[in-house]
Amino acid sequence: MAEKMEIVIISGMSGAGKTVAMQSFEDLGYFCVDNMPPALMPKFWELMQQTGKVSKVALVVDLRSRAFYDQMGDILVDMRDKPGLTLRILFLDATDSELVSRYKETRRAHPLAMDGRLMDGITKERDLLGDLKRHADLVIDTTTLTPRALRERLFAEFKTQKQTTFHVEVMSFGFKYGLPIDADIVMDVRFLPNPFYIPELKQETGLDKGVYDYVMGNPLAAKFYQQYITMLDTIMPAYVKEGKTSLTIAIGCTGGQHRSVAFARRIGEHLRKHYTVDISHRDVNKHKEGVNRS
């Protein structure tokens, strides 16, 4: 039996936080489409159903599609009755004074007040969106919410119990090939004894038992590892609390073959107990291309 598709319609007042909402749904694993004309929603659902590859969709529908808005009510009623589809409407709102303040801050023009007063546009928009708000499954007033608070509220409402939105990449690299530009945390382990100078380990990597045991068996390495893991265990929950969805930890040695690989392995295996973790080794095979001191 085909998996039931979930579609979330994101709408609401201009300036109430739809951009933050769409970014949050992307991080929750939804296939997101911005500025979807309501008339195209039934066809879009049919196409998604045919592919069978997407089960969660978030569509932003706002007054940029106002030429199609008169059809919205009938379309939503029809889609709620479709088998195999769960439809939820999220409506974001804020007080008039807060919307005015946000527009003044961004210096944007309201879509319904291009040639008039800002409040005229807000009033007209409230009138046009009145029916949609009344039919919404969830209305969130963002007047006092920061973008992070809105994000947390959406995660609380739409995140599944088994779903994790925080991803950690632990990678090894060689300084001789340059710093990874996407790293959030960089640690240098070139202070440790180098297996490159052990003949039987020279051509092996930190993925091999001999190199791994040589690196991690050093008393200094053991002490450093414990202190570094203690630091990571302390700061990682704070990254999650701040709303960060991904973190890249880069461990470097000279060539990215021995020491950094062993350390990245062990750190990644520890963090996997608590987070979704990928372990990668950017330069581990570069030694095959020439002389390498890692």
TrEMBL record:
<dbReference type="InterPro" id="IPR053930">
    <property type="entry name" value="RapZ-like_N"/>
</dbReference>
<keyword id="KW-0342">GTP-binding</keyword>
<dbReference type="InterPro" id="IPR027417">
    <property type="entry name" value="P-loop_NTPase"/>
</dbReference>
<dbReference type="GO" id="GO:0005525">
    <property type="term" value="F:GTP binding"/>
</dbReference>
<feature type="binding site">
    <location>
        <begin position="12"/>
        <end position="19"/>
    </location>
    <ligand>
        <name>ATP</name>
    </ligand>
</feature>
<protein>
    <submittedName>
        <fullName>ATP-binding protein</fullName>
    </submittedName>
</protein>
<dbReference type="Pfam" id="PF22740">
    <property type="entry name" value="PapZ_C"/>
</dbReference>
<dbReference type="Pfam" id="PF03668">
    <property type="entry name" value="RapZ-like_N"/>
</dbReference>
<feature type="binding site">
    <location>
        <begin position="62"/>
        <end position="65"/>
    </location>
    <ligand>
        <name>GTP</name>
    </ligand>
</feature>
<keyword id="KW-0067">ATP-binding</keyword>
<dbReference type="InterPro" id="IPR005337">
    <property type="entry name" value="RapZ-like"/>
</dbReference>
<feature type="domain" description="RapZ C-terminal">
    <location>
        <begin position="167"/>
        <end position="284"/>
    </location>
</feature>
<dbReference type="GO" id="GO:0005524">
    <property type="term" value="F:ATP binding"/>
</dbReference>
<dbReference type="InterPro" id="IPR053931">
    <property type="entry name" value="RapZ_C"/>
</dbReference>
<keyword id="KW-0547">Nucleotide-binding</keyword>
<feature type="domain" description="RapZ-like N-terminal">
    <location>
        <begin position="5"/>
        <end position="161"/>
    </location>
</feature>
